[in-house]
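Supplementary Methods. Inverse-folding protocol.

Structures were first reduced to a discrete structure-token string of length 227. This string, shown here, constituted the complete conditioning input.
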């Protein structure tokens, strides 16, 4: 069976992507959660993950002893290993566009990620309002996301970015979590998409697990000193 090494579900946006991809596609796997205690070289987290992946980060997919790290690499590996699950869109141009937007997410949106870190359990509208007011780059990131999702939803006529569930939806699921936590202003059709995504069984299962995790990790909580 495949093994997926992940971090805390409340905080680990990178871990969320392949987990919900596997779960929603009904691909059997064993979850191995490694708690975020610290990212220092001598931490339990680094020592544990360092034995699995030279990158020392989560997520890591292990298939019969073979480790795949980096979320895009994991997604591509799963798409090739399970072609019947149709994880990328079927049409060539749609498939290329899906890869393009996933790569854009992978390499970009640094301001949104930095100023609005994923924290599913929290409700931080005041922090979101300050980030929206004071951080032009956050506004630019969100404007691009709204434009991207609007175009894709219109072109493929929903309910998700490329019609049915795909790697692209898994890739942007952590963005949906951020938009809810920080109550960032988006149009109704974007909120509707977020609602549909969060209603997917895999996404709902991740959220439910994050809510009962109750593991306050101080260095992942820039806006709170306690829960």
């Amino acid at each position: 069976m495949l093994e997926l090494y992940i971090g805390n579900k409340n905080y680990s946006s990178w871990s969320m992507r392949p987990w919900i991809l596997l779960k929603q596609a009904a691909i059997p796997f064993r979850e191995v959660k490694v708690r975020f205690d610290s990212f220092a070289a001598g931490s339990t987290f680094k020592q544990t993950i360092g034995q699995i992946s030279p990158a020392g980060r989560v997520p890591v997919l292990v298939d019969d002893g073979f480790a795949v790290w980096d979320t895009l690499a994991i997604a591509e590996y799963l798409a090739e290993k399970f072609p019947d699950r149709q994880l990328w869109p079927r049409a060539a141009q749609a498939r290329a566009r899906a890869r393009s937007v996933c790569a854009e997410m992978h390499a970009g949106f640094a301001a949104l990620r930095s100023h609005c870190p994923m924290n599913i359990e929290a409700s931080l509208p005041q922090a979101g309002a300050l980030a929206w007011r004071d951080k032009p780059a956050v506004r630019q990131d969100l404007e691009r996301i709204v434009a991207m999702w609007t175009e894709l939803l219109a072109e493929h006529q929903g309910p998700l970015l490329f019609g049915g569930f795909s790697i692209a939806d898994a890739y942007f699921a952590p963005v949906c979590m951020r938009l809810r936590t920080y109550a960032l202003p988006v149009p109704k059709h974007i909120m509707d998409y977020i609602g549909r995504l969060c209603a997917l069984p895999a996404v709902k299962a991740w959220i439910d697990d994050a809510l009962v995790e109750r593991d306050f990790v101080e260095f992942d909580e820039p806006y709170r000193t306690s829960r």
